[in-house]
Amino acid sequence: xxxxxxxxxxxxxxxxxxxxxxxxxxxxxxxxxxxxxxxxxxxxxxxxxxxxxxxxxxxxxxxxxxxxxxxxxxxxxxxxxxxxxxxxxxxxxxxxxxxxxxxxxxxxxxxxxxxxxxxxxxxxxxxxxxxxxxxxxxxxx
Length: 141
Description:
This protein is mostly helical. It contains six helices and no strands. The protein has helices spanning about 1-15, 35-45, 65-80, 90-105, 110-115, 125-135. α4 runs antiparallel to α6.
């Protein structure tokens, strides 16, 4: 039993040597998405930690294997949609991203794994409806 615990401890310590990059780049506010204040508040609380260059990296994001998962979520989120560089997208890309926001805001985002540690990010049904209405996307019949 002691040997097994020692092996796990050594593996855990060794995992800490594999660091992930966790950075935020300088933000140009003129490139950030523009939305009404109530929508911006919702986006900042529920979306910005994965979909912007203003990620609030919590202390546990420095501990492997959590750091690996969190970094992957942020990198994937930024790749799909980054609110901090909204004005760098073409009009066609913006339309696609708004459709994506419309589709995912209702039930998929934010991820349940994020909500477990960030209860304030959980959107109510009314808040999800506000975001969907803000996108301007209409359901096709």
